[in-house]
Hints:
Elements: E1 28-31, E2 41-47, E3 55-60, E4 71-78, E5 83-90, E6 93-94, E7 98-101, E8 110-117, E9 121-126, E10 129-135, E11 145-150, E12 153-160, E13 174-177, E14 187-193, E15 201-206, E16 217-224, E17 229-236, E18 239-240, E19 244-246, E20 256-263, E21 267-272, E22 275-281, E23 291-296, E24 299-305
Amino acid sequence: MVEGDVTIDEISFVGAHLPQDLNLGIPSTNLIPGGIFPGRIVKVKGGTTLASKRFSVNLQCGPKMYPGEDIAFHFNPRFDTNILVRNHYAGSKWGTEETSSGVPMNKGECFEILIYCYYYRFKVEVNGKCVCEFNHHIPFGKITHIMVEGDLTIDEISFVGAHPPQDPNLKVPFAVPILGCMQPGRWIRVKGTTPAGGERFAINLQCGPKLYPDEEIAFSFSPRFNQGNIVLNHFGCSKWGHEVTEGPLPLSSGSPFEFYIYCYQNSFKVLLNEQQVCEFTHRLPIQRITHVMVDGDAMIFELDYDSPEHPCGPPPSSGSGEISGPY
């Protein structure tokens, strides 16, 4: 409504449209389209009044109001006690409460909350400042809805970030088989991206389908954004070998990547954007490699390899001529 001594030339509205069925009432639950996965960001914009005591934003595993669903992440600013509370709720019980002093917004003012999903944890920013982290206690893949309740008003709830892999077999962590066995001349290509703020991920060439630490790993290639380098190693007899580091890391978190791993007679070589970034001498017989496993802060869109010209026989057992690494 416009009134008074004024002439109007134009009234317009710019910005993304809200979903027609989005419920911005309090309390409310809304479906999260596509779910939660590493790289996803949940945005909540709203405000509080001077009389506000507390409110909560819950990422939960269904549409019912509390206590009807498990809650993977409970974000709860409490003005009345001047603390910020984080928790999860599963099996009709709250977990161990995490608290910090102070509330990251002022009563009576507007706020913007950004919840970033990483592989191991959530990170939360309020008005551009990081205020907390919360490790996953419930798998993020089970989260379907966002629920908001308490003393606040909501202007916007939105979800941004990269789309999850289309192939359900490539949801990290995963292990996929390599047709034939590894031998000199073969290559493996891994294409994906990392979420902004991701700390590390690993591509492992291993000797079976199970996730770490249940298989021996002939070659572990692990970019470490938090250290700025690449860590190379093998895992045998339930122990990691001697760690080799290469650097600086020619990749930043939040960037897409396409790695090629080439197998040579005596080593693996890894290329990024057609540039070699590292080389790793074989420590386990390469014929024992049967699977590629990816773990950590990464989303994988494509994983493929060349077709073997000469299929190999069964891989040797773990005791047949294994090259000993330093344990």
